[in-house]
């Protein structure tokens, strides 16, 4: 496969790195998708799930609706990201094993022996954007879980517990996502 256009051994080594990176994206997305399914299996409207004692701090139905919506958005983003990564991985593998003749599908002609470096980079970037969006939506779903379990944000009687759960979540997840975005953009420019 000629990822870089040169056909040297470094591009063949780069292919193994690309496939490993795509495997990593798919594996992480799969773990997060499992977390989304576990979250969707939980019934937020069950009064036994809440630890709130003050009736004024109980989360309303809109927070439960947001919880489900954010889980669905998260699942959609992770699925999108995984499908893009799997498509790129399949394109790399096909290009390594096929002969270098163009293939005609319907009215389009595809050259399966060469993967354009810019297309590969763009695919990585699109897959990374899907993963970042999925993590953001999952984080918002977890904020809603904390509000359902511990009380709504801004409630005076139990706000310390809610903020104790939400502040680390809203601090560490964005920091991790910024680190991920930095390295994806670094790899994108190389």
UniProtKB/TrEMBL annotation:
This protein's UniProt keywords: Membrane, Transmembrane, Transmembrane helix
Transmembrane segments: 21-43, 63-86, 124-146, 166-188
Keyword Disulfide bond found: no
GO biological process, one term: embryo development ending in seed dormancy
Coiled-coil ranges from the UniProt annotation: none
Protein name (database record): Putative maternal effect embryo arrest 60
Source organism (scientific name): Helianthus annuus
């Amino acid at each position: 496969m000629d990822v870089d256009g040169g056909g040297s051994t470094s591009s063949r080594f780069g292919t193994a790195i690309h496939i490993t990176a795509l495997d990593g994206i798919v594996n992480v997305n799969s773990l997060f998708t499992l977390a989304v399914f576990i979250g969707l299996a939980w019934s937020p409207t069950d009064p036994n799930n809440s630890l709130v004692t003050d009736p004024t701090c109980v989360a309303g139905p809109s927070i439960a609706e947001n919880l489900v919506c954010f889980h669905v958005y998260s699942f959609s983003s992770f699925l999108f990201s995984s499908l893009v990564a799997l498509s790129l991985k399949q394109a790399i593998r096909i290009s390594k094993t096929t002969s270098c003749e163009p293939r005609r599908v319907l009215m389009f002609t595809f050259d399966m022996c060469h993967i354009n470096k810019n297309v590969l980079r763009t695919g990585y970037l699109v897959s990374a954007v899907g993963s970042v969006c999925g993590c953001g939506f999952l984080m918002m779903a977890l904020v809603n879980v904390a509000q359902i379990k511990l009380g709504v944000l801004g409630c005076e009687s139990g706000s310390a517990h809610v903020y104790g759960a939400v502040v680390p979540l809203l601090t560490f997840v964005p920091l991790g996502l910024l680190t991920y975005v930095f390295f994806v953009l670094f790899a994108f420019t190389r």
